[in-house]
Amino acid sequence: MMSKNIALRVLTPAYVGRAVDCIANSFSDDPFSKVSGLQAGDWAAMSGMFVERAATKDLSVIAVNTTNGNVEGVMLNEDWKEKKPEEYSKLSEKWRPIRAIFNKLHISYKARHSRYIQPHEILHPLYFSCIRPELRRQGLIGQLFNKSLEIASDYHFDTVVCESSTTSTAIACGQLGFREIAQVEYRTFLYKGETVFYPLPGMNPEYQKLTIMERPIHAGLVV
C-alpha cells in the first residue's frame, strides 16, 4: 500500500530539479554505475535533459512526498518515436558502452516488429524511471505504472514498452502483463571488441541480461 504522505502528480517544470535528484541518487550505487565509473553527477547530467523535456509533455508521473515536497519516484514516459535530445550525444565517454548496449537492444526490438512503428503508438517509460531505494517494494511502482496507463490511454497510445536490467525486474514486469521481445546478455555483449559488462553478473547475480518488454495499454490495470 502506498504511504499516506505520497501523492502522484504529473511531472511539470516545477519538479524538474527534484525529479533529477531522485534519479541521480537512486542510480548512483547501481552496478551499471560501478562498472562504468558513473557518479550521481553523471546521472544528473544524463537524465536532466530528458526530465526537462518530459516536464512539458504531460505524459510522465512522479511520486511526491507531501510532507517535505521531495520527489520519491519518477516514471519518465516518452513516445517511442521521440528522438534523443541533441545533448545526449555529448555525454562523457563513460556513457558510451551503456548507450551502445541499449542501442543494440532497441535495434533488435524494432527488427521484431513486422511493420513500421508510428508516432503516438508506443509509450516508452525510460530505463531510469525509479523509486528511491528506501521506498521500494511498497507498491509505489505499480501506482506510477497505473497512472501512466491512464495517461497513455487518454493520449491514444496502444502499447507500452520498457527495459529491464535485472531478473527480478523482468519477473515483476511479467506480472504486470509484459512479455519479453528482445535481450542482450551482459557477458557476451562487445563494445569495441571488449566484454565491458562481463563483471555485472559477478557483482550481482540479478544482472544477467538487458531485456526489452511490451504489453498492450488496455490489458488491464495493476492491482
Tell me the series of helices and strands, N- to C-terminal.
EHHHEEEHEEHEHEHE
CATH-scheme architecture: 3-Layer(aba) Sandwich
How many helices? The count is 7
Low-confidence stretches: none
- Outline: globular
Please count the beta strands (DSSP E, at least 2 residues each). Answer: 9
Computed Rg = 17 Å
Query: DSSP strand (E) fraction?
Result: 15-25%
Number of domains: 1
Distance between the termini: 10 Å
CATH superfamily: Gcn5-related N-acetyltransferase (GNAT)
Helix content: 25-40%
Characterize the main sheet. 5 strands, mixed
What is the overall pLDDT average? 91
Q: Class by helix and strand content?
A: alpha+beta
Query: CATH class, please?
Result: Alpha Beta
The strand order across the widest sheet is: 4-5-7-9-8
Protein name: N-acetyltransferase domain-containing protein
GO molecular function, one term: N-acetyltransferase activity
InterPro entries: Acyl_CoA_acyltransferase
